[in-house]
Amino acid sequence: MTSAEQWNWVLLAYGFAYVVLVLFVVSIGVRISRVRARLGDGS
Amino acid sequence: MGFFSQARLITSRDLVRERRSGEVLWVTLPFGAIALLLVPMAIGTDAPLLEQVGTGLFWAIVMLFGVLISIRQTTGETQAQRDQLALTGIDAAAIYVGRATASFVLLVIFEVVLGLVTIVLYDVPVSGWWLVPILITIVAAGLSLLGTLAASIVSTGRNAAALVPLLVAPLSIPLLIGATQALEVLDLGGSSLAWVLMMIVSTLVLAVAGVLSARPLQEI
Amino acid sequence: MTDPTPTSTSTTWPWIVMAVAGLVTFVASMTVSPDAVQGQLSRIMYVHVPSAWLAYLAFIVTMAASAMYLWKRDLKWDRRAAASAEIGVVFTGMALGLGMIWAKPTWGVWWTWDARLTLTSIMFFIYLGYLALRRTTDDLDVRARRAAILGVLAVVQVPLVHFSVEWWRTLHQPATLLRPEGPEMATSMLVTLLIAVMAFTVMYVAMMFKRIELARLEDAVLIAEQASDGAVAGAAVTTPTIGRGTA
């Protein structure tokens, strides 16, 4: 396997990992702000 | 009333219910049998292949479908019925043991009948026959203890029918691997003692966990 | 029941820590020299191994927090258990996915039945079952108790699962079993791996802070909803009258 092909796999791996992490972290943030909004206007 | 007489009361109640409704005998068992029928249609009716997979497939079907026996009672129960049973003053642990024993009896029947179906459809070899009743008993005990406990945990929660099998499946793996390996090791001329002991330990752990958590779960 | 304080101020340092940890891992794994045998593919290890480590750590935390809840009956332990479980599911999924992405070019298959991989996938399903169980009720105490008991049950039964799977795999090992890290790791690779593991651990802690904050807020909403004493069905419900009415 050439170095270029290997880099493709590395890219796939890091893309997958960081997309998952970012989505998860963002989801926590979004959920927090949504719930704060609900509590803010007296549920 | 002593602990074991309480448990026996619950067991007979459950078994009488089963005799009246016939759910295990006429629904769950045929379902398991059909599963055994479906697999050769999917993977091919090549006799040597089926002979190889037959035993393992039998145990897998027992694990996956056997849990339906343990949950049959609790999924049909309402919170009111549950409360009423608690109000009778029967020890929660006795209820657990009684329920698990009823499921154990039904599971043994389930395994024996499906075992016969497997022998017929898959033509599995007959080495180590003396071990099979032992394995059937241990698996039935472990699976009924685990299934009854899982059903108590989920209790009246939403999605109970689907959730209980999901909880049981991963935790039943020691029983599954133990049963299949115990027979396979005999084929290769070794001793199954280690596997059987592991299964027994697993079953004991489940029994203790079930009895200890019976009262906390009832208080919910 | 402890009163979660919804009016607590929102902290920002966890977000910064998470970003920095992610960046550090990325930079470290991209700048280290590639493995002699595996080439660039070895870089995948620097996210795969930390993910797997965190998956197991989060699992242990969930189980320990479950036991603490059963002991103290303080909902804060339930929130910690749940937060760790959700984070754990994400890292377990990542570990499995990254393992597969690494395995395909290295071994030619997406999956092998080696003990560690099998056990990690079993753990994934136990996590999912735990999270699904939490969705079966909105009653905070019921949910906490059920989840905690499942957590403790998993803690006692999972070692047996681990044991049986390991045993099973040692009997059925294929002729050549390649170890993911290679026969021996160069010092630079080891250092990079340690940096990545530490960074991910710090990331986990930061995630826990924020996820527990979310859990506290969500619990506050549930409490507020359940405490509302408005009429259940309002004026629509009247006393039944006997002898009157249609049909």
Structure description:
Chain A has one helix spanning 3-40. With 43 residues, chain A is mainly alpha-helical. The longest helix of chain B has 31 residues, at 92-122. Chain B is built from nine helices and no strands. With 247 residues, chain C is an all-alpha fold. In chain C, 70% of the residues lie in helices and 0% in strands. Chain C is built from six helices and no strands. In chain C, helix 2 (45-72) runs antiparallel to helix 3. The mean pLDDT of chain C is 86. At the A-C interface, helix 1 of A face helix 1, helix 2, helix 3 and helix 6 of C.
Question: Gist?
Answer:
The complex is a heterotrimer of chains A (43), B (220) and C (247). Chain A has 43 residues and is mainly alpha-helical.
Keywords:
heterotrimer, A: 43 residues, mainly alpha, 1 helix, 0% strand, rod-shaped, B: 220 residues, globular
List the topology elements.
The complex is a heterotrimer of chains A (43), B (220) and C (247).
Chain A: H1 3-40
Chain B: H1 3-21, H2 23-43, H3 47-75, H4 79-87, H5 92-122, H6 131-154, H7 160-171, H8 173-187, H9 193-218
Helix pairs in contact in B: 1-5, 2-3, 2-5, 3-5, 3-6, 3-7, 3-8, 5-6, 5-9, 6-7, 6-8, 6-9, 8-9
Chain C: H1 13-31, H2 45-72, H3 75-107, H4 115-134, H5 140-171, H6 187-227
